[in-house]
Amino acid sequence: MKVILIGGVLAPVLAIIVLGYASQQDGKAPATGPATENRFPPLKLPAGFKATLFACDPLIEYPSVISIGPKPGAIFVAIDYMTGLERDGKVKSEIRLVEDTDGDGYADKATAVAKGFNSIQGLAYHDDTLFVMHAPFLTSLKYDKKTGIAESRKDLLSGLGLKPEDNKSRLHCANGVVVGHDGWLYLALGDNGVNVPRPEGDRLIHNGGAILRCRPDGRDLHVFSTGLRNIYDIALDADLNVFTRDNENDGGTYMIRVLHSFFGANHGYPYDYEERPDHALKPIGDFGLGSSAGGVCYLETQFPKQYRGNLFFCEWGKSIVRYELNRAGSGFAPVKEIEFAFGDPKDTYPFKPTDIVVQRDGTMMVADYADGQRPKRGRGRIYPIKHAGGDAEPAKKQPKSDLDKLNSESYFDRWEAQLAFERRGDAGRQELGDAFRANKIGPRAINHALHALAKGRGGAGLGDMLALVTDLDPIIRLPAIRIIADLTDPILVKHKLDAGRGDDAIAKTLATLKNRDDPRVMREIVIALGRLRWADAPAWLAKNLTKPDDVLAHAAMQTLRRADNWPAVLKLLDQPADKPIRKIALRTITDQYDATIVDDLLARLKSDNFVPHRREYAEALARVYKKPGPWKYWEYRPEPRPVNTQAWERTAAIANALDGVLAD
User: Which of 139, 128, 64 is closest to 356 using CA atoms?
Assistant: First the structure.
């Protein structure tokens, strides 16, 4: 029997293997179809929903993560032998295409399309490309629909977490990968951190868990948000708002957290969430102990309306949970956790969901690890979940044109239409412009249409966004501002991490936009000004940030830091105590090892007799008395924040000042 041999970058796939081997548990391969259902008790679901058993062993085992397939009735399944069957690295992981070829709703064929991976924790399929996260690599493969072969393998990035030989658990490293319709790959990273040589020649180093972004070819890798522990997946809603569900720190005080994230956000792990929660972006849900895995935002129409736009996440060893999202101020309202699917207590192999994806027809596919009988073979399962009736939508009518698809209620339809316009280049952009002028772009289509327009050559995309951002409708303004930030961020324009400031004229254009009453619009402007590293941001925020909520205040703090104008930030400490900007400025200067900041605080400590102010200045100085030592991984349940040990040029001056305070 021929097998796949993939030794390294760009190695061709020589052959494929069609898996029809006998189950090692049962001695023979069980038939697929309704009879297979009798092997395991059914999932428990809300009224009106039904789950069938799409696939089980021997077609799959140890399913760590899944992705939509290249056609209806098919999904890609990552078989993670490295954390299942073997932990010594001898048996590498693989990707299988699992298919229902006869249309009866049950898988009857599993084809290994790629082999030779480390522990696969992230998998996404888009535009005939498979993206695979297997620490320390992000790898891409082109999938040929005619031959069923995934080839042209390329390791886009390395240094995402630890190598398998340096991390026996295979955990807390490279996790999920999600493709956004903005053209970015969103990467979920555990808190072993990253040390990535970027294709551009410089190096991205980050200690701790984070969300990263890069282009589909690996270029322009950058940090999106930080302060995370071990997120396994990222969920994007229809407007490209980013959500994730973080894992608790093995019985410590950091519990399961549902988070709305945005560019520059710091979620507080491993110390600030407890020590200084006002320095971290608060979660929208803070729950008990647990182990979170894959998740998705449901954006199709097969489920009833109350479920659309909900977040669904896997709780390992327990259930699928969901969260209804509602906007509040510049962010989202607190969420409640609702159990959606759970296993039968009588099941010999308890329900251990690892991942969720939504098919083009709205069916939710759930991967179930089923057991962990190392070193025996695993009893993995794949369940499709559908709604049987009620207020679920009838079968969709096929849109007649790309413009019809762009206005569809189906997210998949809208995304496919967006790609069609982008592929037509200037002609597609002209067609979209005409549709805008004729009011043929509906609310659901706007986000996709703007991202298609942003692909204009020779700066045309930026010009279109600058024209559209003056529109007072937040549905247009919000994506336009985000796109402008991506098109003008100096790191992405100059393709280097040490890129300096962005375009001052663009920053002034955003800062002078009229009618900024919508707090979401204000949030996006603040984030964009930070990405441009606008030096005048401190003064602008002092004038315009009057009653920020917690989300907007956090965005402002990060923008003040990015402004790289410490004299202007320190001047904000002269504002009255009841002004929000003063509190934000005080948080901003915390833990900043900068001589300008220290010298200003030392002077204030001498001249300011107001006791609350002196206390604030002394605390800020104490935090930067010495610098932290070399970073050391804090393990799954961190000890309290370690003492800083490295003296720097202002250590002696700070010591003298604090001695004086103690003697006062």
Answer: 64
CB 415 within 8 A of CB 448: yes
Helix (H) or strand (E) holding 265: none
CA torsion angle 15 20 23 27 (round to 10): -130
Residue 386, helix vs strand vs coil: strand
Helix (H) or strand (E) holding 508: helix 504-511
Tokens of 276: 């200084």
What pLDDT, on a 0 to 100 scale, did the predictor assign at position 193?
Answer: 97
Asked if omega into 548 is within 30° of 0 (cis), the reply is no
Question: Is the separation of the CB atoms in 126 and 140 below 8 Å?
Answer: no
- Report d(CA 595, CA 569) in Å as an integer: 14
Structure letter (DSSP) for residue 33: S
The span from the CA of 43 to the CA of 57, in Å, is 17
In the block, residue with structure tokens 């305070």: 661
Q: What's the gap between Cα 173 and its chain centre? A: 14
Residues 250, 418: Cα–Cα separation, whole Å = 43
How many other C-beta atoms can be found within 10 angstroms of the C-beta atom of residue 5?
A: 12
Q: How far is it, in rounded angstroms, from Cα 159 to Cα 324?
A: 36
d(CA 273, CA 540): 29
**Minimal CA–CA distance to 486: which of 511, 470, 468, 465?**
465
Q: Please compute, for residue 172, the number of CA atoms within 13 A of its CA located in the half-sphere on the CB side.
A: 21
Q: Is the pLDDT of residue 338 over 70?
A: yes
Q: Which of 446, 439, 533 is nearest to 485 (CA)?
A: 533
Measured N-to-C along each axis, helices 474-488 and 460-468 cross at an angle, to the nearest 10 degrees, of 150
Amino acid at site 338: I
Hey, what's the torsion of the CAs at 50, 54, 58, 62, to 10 degrees?
Answer: -70
Distance CA 550, CA 262 (A): 13
Report the half-sphere exposure of 4 (CA within 13 A, side-chain side): 26
Question: Can you read off the two tokens belonging to residue 220?
Answer: 């322009």
**Nearest C-alpha neighbor of 384 from the set 368, 397, 398:** 368
Please check the confidence at residue 191 and state whether its pLDDT lies above 70: yes
Q: How far is CA 422 from the centre of its chain?
A: 24
- Taking the CA atoms of residue 247, residue 250, residue 252 and residue 258 in that order, the dihedral angle to the nearest 10 degrees is 10
Omega before residue 375 within 30° of 0, cis: yes
R_g of the chain, CA atoms, integer Å: 26
Residue 426 is encoded by which pair of tokens? 């200037």
pLDDT in tens, 570-613: 999 999 999 999 999 999 999 999 999 999 999 999 999 999 99
Instruction: Decide if 225 contacts 198 (C-beta within 8 A).
Output: no
Average pLDDT over residues 409-421: 97
- On the question of pLDDT at 43 being above 80, the answer is yes
- How many residues belong to the chain? 664
Cα separation, 168 vs 171, in Å, equals: 8
Query: Which DSSP letter does residue 10 get?
Result: T
* Contact between 213 and 222 (Cβ < 8 Å): yes
Residue whose structure tokens are 């081997």: 21
Tokens standing for residue 304: 């009833």
Residue 32 has pLDDT above 90, yes or no: no
Instruction: Tell me how far apart the alpha carbons of residues 239 and 461 are, in angstroms, rounded to a whole number.
Output: 19
Q: Rounded distance, CA 315 to CA 319, Å?
A: 5
Q: Do residues 418 and 449 touch, judged by C-beta distance below 8 A?
A: yes
In eight-state DSSP terms, residue 101 is S
